[in-house]
Specification:
The complex is a heterodimer of chains A (74) and B (577).
Chain A (H helix, E strand, L loop, with lengths): L1 E6 L10 E5 L6 H7 L7 E6 L2 E2 L11 E6 L5
Parallel strand pairs in A: 1-5
Antiparallel strand pairs in A: 1-2, 3-4, 3-5
Chain B lengths: L2 E6 L4 E6 L9 H12 L13 E5 L13 E6 L6 E6 L3 H7 L2 E7 L8 E7 L2 E7 L7 H12 L4 E4 L2 H4 L7 E4 L5 E4 L4 H7 L2 E6 L12 H17 L1 H10 L4 H7 L21 H10 L3 E4 L10 E5 L5 E4 L3 H10 L5 H14 L5 H12 L7 H12 L4 H7 L2 H8 L6 E2 L2 E2 L9 H9 L12 H4 L15 H15 L9 H6 L3 H13 L5 H21 L12 H4 L13 H5 L5
Helix pairs in contact in B: 1-21, 6-7, 6-20, 10-11, 10-12, 11-13, 12-15, 13-14, 16-18, 18-21
The chains are: A mainly beta (74), B alpha+beta (577).
The complex binds iron/sulfur cluster (SF4).
The site of iron/sulfur cluster has 13 residues of chain B, from loops.
Chain lengths: 74, 577
C-alpha cells in the first residue's frame, strides 16, 4: 500500500521532506519509523491526516503520516 | 530595603518609598496587577490621569537564575479596557533587580500637551526632565540618541511614534543586550506611556552590587538543577534554540490549526515558505544567528538574528506569531518581506500580533489585497507611521478596523486580536482566549502544549472535554511564573520534568530566606488571577465578554470541518476555584 510520509525539523536531516512510499499491509507507525531509522524515543508528535496517533497504529492505504520530534514554541 | 519609585507626571515630582511589607512576596505580574487593582479606578479612562503605568522586575530578576531576564509592565489597557500585564526581555529587569527597585509607578498626567519628558533612574533616585530631541522619532533612533547622550550601557524603555500618537496597537519597547528591541507587546501600553507624555526612561545600574542571596549555596544548587532541566528537555534544550518558535508553522498547518486568510482556513498552502525549518536554513545560509537570547542569562535562547540576502541585519526576535500573522493570515508568502515588516513594527513600536491580525481584517475589508506585503510595508511606514487618518484607523487595531469597514469576521476577544492558533481546532486555547483577564492572549494559558505538542500530557484538541480544567491550571501556573521574572518557556521542561518547578521555589527561598512551598506559589497564581478578574468586573467587563466571536460558532474550518461549540455555561466554570 502507498503511504505519504512527511518529516519535520531534525527528522529531515539526511532524509526527505515528503515522500510516497510503498509498505506491506499491516505496517504500523512504529514500523515506518524503524525503516527510516528514526529512534522511537525521539518522536514527539505523530499525526495521521492531522489527527494525533500512537506508534502502534496500523496504517491504511493512502494515509498521510507526519512525524515530528518533540517541539514547542509560543 | 527594596524601593518603590513613584513618578508623578501631574506635578513632575518623584517620591521614593520603602516597599510595603505586603509586597515582599510579589514581583512581576503579581506586583503590577496588585498596584493597578489597588490604585487605578477600574472605570477610569485608560488614557486619562487616573490610569497608572507600572513596571516591575520579577522576584528573581538580577540573580543568576537561568532565564530570569523578563520584566512586567501593567496598567489598564486602552485596547481591551481590562487590566493588562505584558512582559519582555531586555536588560532593564536585571538592572532594576540590582538597584533593588521593586516597582516604578508612573501616575498622573501633565496638563500641558506641548512638552514631552524623559525619566532617568539610577542608584541616586529618579529625575524627570523635558525631552525634545527624540520627540517624533521611532525606536531605533531613540536608542541611538540615548546611547550617544547617556552611554551605551543604559537600560532603555521607550515608545515610538505610534505610542506618541496614542494608537491602540502601540507597544512599549526596551533595549536588549545587543542594542536591539524587545517589546511589552500587547494591549496598547505604548499609548498609556504616551498619555503620560513620557518618551523614554533610562536605567543606570552604575555602582550596584550583585543581588544579595540569603543562602547562596542553596541558590546555586537549585539553579543547577533548574538549568539542567532547561537543557535536558528536548523543547527548551534543542527545538527552541535551533528553530525558534517558528517551528510551530508546520505543526499547526499539519493539525489544521493555522488560521489562514483572516481565519477562514486552518491550513496554508505556502506553509513551507514561512516555516521554522525554512527560516533556520535561510538564517544559516546568510550568516545570521539561529540561536540567540533576548536577555542576559537566557539558557534556552529561542531568539535569532535574521539577515537579508546580502547578509545584512534585517530583524531579530522573529516570532512564530508574527510570521504566522503575515505569512498565513495575510497570505504573504515571502519571509524576507515579513522580516522587514517585523523590523518596521519594532521601530514604530506596534504590537506584532495586533498589527498583522488587523491587516488580515483590513484585507478582508478590501483596504488592501491579501498577500500584498509591499502595500503592508507602505501602510506601516506612510499611514500608521505618519498617523494619517487611515493610519489612525489601522492603528486603532483589529476590532476598530472591523467596525469601521463593516466586517463581521473579526478575530478578537475583549477587543484584542486572537493569535496564531485556531480555537476551533485547538479548543483548549479557545478557553484561554475567552476567559483570560487579558483579552485574547495565547501566553496566558498555553493549552497548545498539551493539546498539540504532547507536553504536560495529552488532551484531544478537537474535543471540549477537559479543556476548561487544562486552561485553568495553565493560567494559574502562568500567573505565578510571570511574577518571578522567569521566561514562560521554562514551562515546557516544568510540565514534564519533576525537579524543575521545585527548583524555582528553592531559588526563591534561597534568595529571600522564605519557606515557600509549591502550594504557596500556586496560591500566588490564583490570587493574581482573582484580583485581575475583580478589576475587570468592576470595569464593566463581565462574563458576557468571556466568549469567542460568533463567527467561530457559525463557520466550520478546514480540514477538520469543526466549529467552536463549547457551551457558555461550561466556559463560566473556569472561575470555580
Ligand atoms: S527563551 Fe526566548 S523569550 Fe525566553 S528569555 Fe530566552 S530568548 Fe527570551
Amino acid at each position: 500500500m502507498l503511504i505519504t510520509v512527511k518529516l519535520f525539523a531534525t527528522f529531515l536531516e539526511n532524509r526527505f521532506k515528503e515522500a510516497r512510499r510503498e509498505y506491506p499491509p499491516g505496517t504500523t507507525v512504529a514500523d515506518v519509523a524503524t525503516e527510516l531509522e528514526i529512534d522511537h524515543d525521539l518522536i514527539g508528535m505523530i499525526f495521521i491526516h492531522g489527527r494525533a496517533a500512537e506508534l502502534d497504529r496500523v496504517l491504511d492505504e493512502g494515509e498521510v503520516l507526519a512525524l515530528f520530534p518533540l517541539l514547542g514554541g509560543g | 530595603m527594596p524601593k518603590v519609585i513613584r513618578i508623578n507626571m501631574t506635578d513632575l515630582s518623584v517620591r521614593i518609598d520603602e516597599a510595603p511589607e505586603a509586597w515582599a512576596g510579589l514581583g512581576g505580574r503579581a506586583l503590577t496587577s496588585t498596584v493597578v487593582a489597588a490604585e487605578v479606578p477600574p472605570t477610569c479612562h485608560p488614557l486619562g490621569p487616573n490610569n497608572k503605568l507600572v513596571f516591575a522586575p520579577g522576584l528573581l530578576s538580577g540573580t543568576a537564575a537561568g532565564n530570569a531576564g523578563r520584566m512586567s509592565a501593567g496598567a489598564k489597557s486602552p485596547l481591551t479596557g481590562t487590566i493588562k500585564e505584558s512582559n519582555a526581555g531586555g536588560t532593564c529587569g536585571r538592572m532594576l533587580g540590582r538597584l533593588d527597585i521593586k516597582a516604578i509607578i508612573i501616575e498622573g498626567q501633565p496638563a500641558a500637551t506641548d512638552t514631552w519628558y524623559q525619566i532617568r533612574i539610577s542608584s541616586e533616585g529618579a529625575v524627570i526632565e523635558p525631552e525634545a530631541e527624540t520627540v517624533g522619532m521611532n525606536n531605533f533612533a531613540v536608542l541611538d540618541s540615548v546611547a550617544r547622550r547617556y552611554g551605551e550601557d543604559k537600560g532603555v524603555i521607550t515608545i515610538g511614534s505610534a505610542g506618541e500618537n496614542l494608537m491602540l496597537i502601540s507597544n512599549i519597547s526596551t533595549r536588549d543586550p545587543e542594542g536591539k528591541l524587545r517589546s511589552f507587546g500587547r494591549g496598547g501600553l505604548g499609548a498609556v506611556m504616551g498619555s503620560k507624555r513620557v518618551k523614554f526612561i533610562t536605567i543606570d545600574q552604575e555602582g550596584t552590587r550583585p543581588v544579595p542571596l540569603v543562602d547562596s549555596a542553596a541558590f546555586k544548587a537549585a539553579n543547577m538543577v533548574f538549568t539542567k532541566a532547561l537543557k535536558d528537555h528536548p523543547v527548551s534544550g534543542q527545538g527552541l534554540p535551533t528553530y525558534g518558535t517558528a517551528v510551530l508553522v508546520n505543526i499547526l498547518h499539519e493539525i489544521g490549526g493555522l488560521p489562514t486568510r483572516n481565519f477562514t482556513s486552518g491550513q496554508c498552502e505556502h506553509h513551507d515558505m514561512i516555516s521554522g525549518e525554512h527560516m533556520y536554513d535561510t538564517i544559516v545560509a546568510r550568516g545570521g544567528e539561529p540561536t540567540h537570547g533576548c536577555s542576559l542569562g537566557c539558557v534556552i535562547q529561542c531568539s535569532q538574528v535574521y539577515n537579508d540576502k546580502d547578509g545584512k541585519y534585517l530583524t531579530s526576535g522573529f516570532e512564530y506569531e508574527t510570521i504566522w500573522a503575515y505569512g498565513a493570515d495575510c497570505l504573504i508568502d515571502n519571509l524576507d518581506l515579513i522580516a522587514e515588516c517585523d523590523n518596521v513594527m519594532d521601530d514604530l513600536g506596534v504590537d506584532s500580533i495586533e498589527t498583522p491580525v488587523m491587516f488580515g481584517v483590513a484585507m478582508e475589508a478590501g483596504i488592501l489585497k491579501f498577500g500584498d506585503g509591499a502595500e503592508v510595508l507602505r501602510m506601516l511606514r506612510e499611514e500608521i507611521g505618519k498617523a494619517t487618518p487611515l493610519g489612525r484607523i489601522l492603528g486603532a487595531g483589529t476590532a476598530m478596523v472591523g467596525k469601521t469597514y463593516g466586517v463581521a469576521r473579526v478575530p478578537v476577544v475583549k477587543g484584542q486580536a486572537i493569535p496564531a492558533y485556531d480555537p476551533r481546532s485547538v479548543k483548549g486555547i479557545g478557553v484561554t482566549y475567552a476567559t483570560t483577564t487579558q483579552g485574547a492572549d495565547h501566553t496566558a494559558g498555553y493549552a497548545v502544549a498539551t493539546n498539540v505538542l504532547n507536553v504536560g500530557g495529552k488532551v484531544d484538541p478537537l474535543s471540549n472535554e477537559g479543556q476548561v480544567e487544562l486552561s485553568r491550571n495553565l493560567q494559574i501556573a502562568t500567573a505565578a511564573i510571570d511574577s518571578t521574572g522567569l521566561c514562560l518557556f521554562i514551562a515546557f521542561p516544568a510540565l514534564d520534568i519533576a525537579e524543575c518547578l521545585p527548583a524555582t521555589v528553592d531559588m526563591l527561598n534561597a534568595r529571600f530566606g522564605t519557606k515557600l512551598t509549591m502550594d504557596d506559589v500556586v496560591g500566588l497564581g490564583k490570587t493574581v488571577l482573582k484580583l485581575e478578574h475583580e478589576f475587570n468586573l468592576a470595569a464593566g467587563i463581565g462574563p458576557e465578554q468571556d466568549r469567542l466571536p460568533e463567527f467561530f460558532e457559525l463557520e466550520a474550518i478546514a480540514p477538520h470541518n469543526v466549529k467552536w461549540d463549547m457551551e457558555q455555561k461550561e466556559l463560566e466554570t473556569f472561575w470555580n476555584f
